[in-house]
Amino acid sequence: MVPMKTIAGIELGGTKALAVLARGSEILASARFATTTPNETLGALVDTLEGWKRREGFAALGIASFGPLRLDPGATDFGTMLATPKAGWSGADIAGALGAVADCPWRIDTDVNAAALAEWRWGAGQGLDSLCYLTLGTGVGGGLLLGGRPVHGALHPEIGHLRLRRANGDEFSGSCPFHGDCIEGLLSGPALQARFGRAGEEIRADDPRWSFVAHDLAQLIGALLLVTSPQKILIGGGIGMGRSFLLERAWQHVVADLAGYLPFVPGDAAEDLVTLPALGDRAGPLGAVALGEAVLIDARTKEGKF
């Protein structure tokens, strides 16, 4: 019999895709692939899942993907990629390709909603009712959790495409092909490459242009605090976790911009409210595992087994 805690998870990102086999937060096996074309990348993931299904077996599958995604189960294009800056991926049937091979309960959600779920389950969000997870990397995304449930509506949160107040003197036009200077067009890896002329990890911390980036991040944090009132905001992704000085500089702007209006926002240290994910770069793949666990829990609840 397949152990009920054995879960397969897929984290599909704009740069790389990870497949994991796990029990709880313990990853038993993993495979990594570059995100190239849908046929190539999804084909490699399907092959991995089929191998695990034959050898080890798994009780559920969680799929955590970059977006935007159609997450309405009643829609004819449920589980497909909508219009995305990632070339060739608009219209890709992610759920159809991966869910068909699972032969078990499965669930799909955005990678950031899933990462928030993992942090709520095993990381920095334990014991909280509301949580926001931001990722700053190839793109900028945000997942929201209320009562342990990812937020969905007409679509899902598209935090990265907010257009917020720009810093005085900042003439960078942004890099988003849809909106120019939305948050993704200002803070993503490609945006930093366009602004600085080199990759983010190669830019010196004392480069004065980081002040514009810190301002933009502060605008996003402030908007989230005002609109969603989360108990904690976690900032992950290669840029979020790789450039910790950005958070320190951004927080100074946040405090100044809010001007004492929100009583739960401390005036000095941000650690209790805005911090790095406790799971680090494991939040993504474990988010997929958490989705798999969630679909099993829901199924058992409906059957009256809890």
Automatic annotation (TrEMBL):
Keywords: Kinase, Magnesium, Metal-binding, Transferase, Zinc. InterPro entries: ATPase_NBD (IPR043129), Carb_Metab_Reg_Kinase/Isom (IPR051804), ROK (IPR000600), ROK_cs (IPR049874). This is fructokinase. Pfam families: ROK. It catalyses: D-fructose + ATP = D-fructose 6-phosphate + ADP + H(+). One of its GO terms (molecular function) is metal ion binding. SUPFAM superfamilies: Actin-like ATPase domain. Its cofactor is Mg(2+). Its EC number is 2.7.1.4.
